[in-house]
Amino acid sequence: MTLNLVFTSDEYNGSTLSVLGRNPAFREMPIVGGSGVFRLAQGSATAKMYWIDTNKGMLLFSIMHVIVLR
């Protein structure tokens, strides 16, 4: 799974974090980079899946904790 977190307000406006990882129900995924104030960022994010519809290819999950080193 790839995920780009896009920030739209305050000092982080226009910056992104890029997350990459597997897709089990509970996951810990590495932060593999970013842009703006998060350029060359690394760290980890945890997330939990709450709902999935495999027929439509849709899922709902929540980012629970993000640790970023920049």
UniProtKB/TrEMBL annotation:
Homodimer. PANTHER family: NUCLEOPORIN-RELATED. The keyword Glycosyltransferase does not apply. It is found in: Secreted, Extracellular space, Apoplast. It comes from Solanum verrucosum. It holds the Pfam family Dirigent. InterPro entries: Allene_oxi_cyc_Dirigent, Dirigent. Dirigent proteins impart stereoselectivity on the phenoxy radical-coupling reaction, yielding optically active lignans from two molecules of coniferyl alcohol in the biosynthesis of lignans, flavonolignans, and alkaloids and thus plays a central role in plant secondary metabolism. GO terms for cellular component: apoplast. Its main location: secreted. Keywords: Apoplast, Secreted. Belongs to the plant dirigent protein family. This is Dirigent protein. It comes from the Eukaryota. One of its GO terms (biological process) is phenylpropanoid biosynthetic process.
